[in-house]
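Sync notes, pocket subgroup
Present: LS, DG
LS reminded everyone that the earlier model was apo-only. Rerun requested with zinc ion included. Inputs:
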Amino acid sequence: METLTRLVRLFSKLPGLGPKSANRIVYHLLKCDKTYIEALSKGLEDLIVNIKECSVCGNYTDCDPCSLCSDPSRQKDIICVVEEPKDIQAIEGTGEYTGVYHVLMGVISPINGIGPSDLRIPQLLNRIGKSKIQEIILATNPTVEGDTTALYLLDKLKSFHVRVSRLALGLPMGGDLEYADRLTLARAFSGRQEIN
Ligand SMILES: [Zn+2]
């Protein structure tokens, strides 16, 4: 396949980009400064070589444990459970939260054949069993699947003596944490409700 066609196809697989916009990007790159293209290409290479999952929380990181898990100023006895690493970014953007995180890497979704064992749930239970945890905040998205996952976790967490809370309503149903504005997300955090 021709270099240009191949690159357009690769770009068109990215979220939000169709063949037309992929085409526009590739032609734009052809006009760009060579050092920019080299930096971009190096950045993509580093993505495979350097980025790994934090062995504690599952966040994407250059060093293991990640900067949040190894930060002495973070409260290690509060764990906020999120679906994806990008949710951590959204929550950190509020500046409201000082605990640590646990990334599930998805949600329970029978339609897509994703069950609890496909997620980082065993790692979460193991983590709670090993250290003294005060509170677990279930911050899965306000979707049917996010709620199902939260209910499943609530049930699993019954055997641990730990406070469990869910982000306060007010986040739009069916919406994603990452699209909520800072203030809404901050309010959802400070108004979180205990559910066990
Ligand atoms: Zn971590």
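DG: The first strand starts at residue 52 and ends at 53.
LS: The radius of gyration is 20 Å.
Action: DG to write up.
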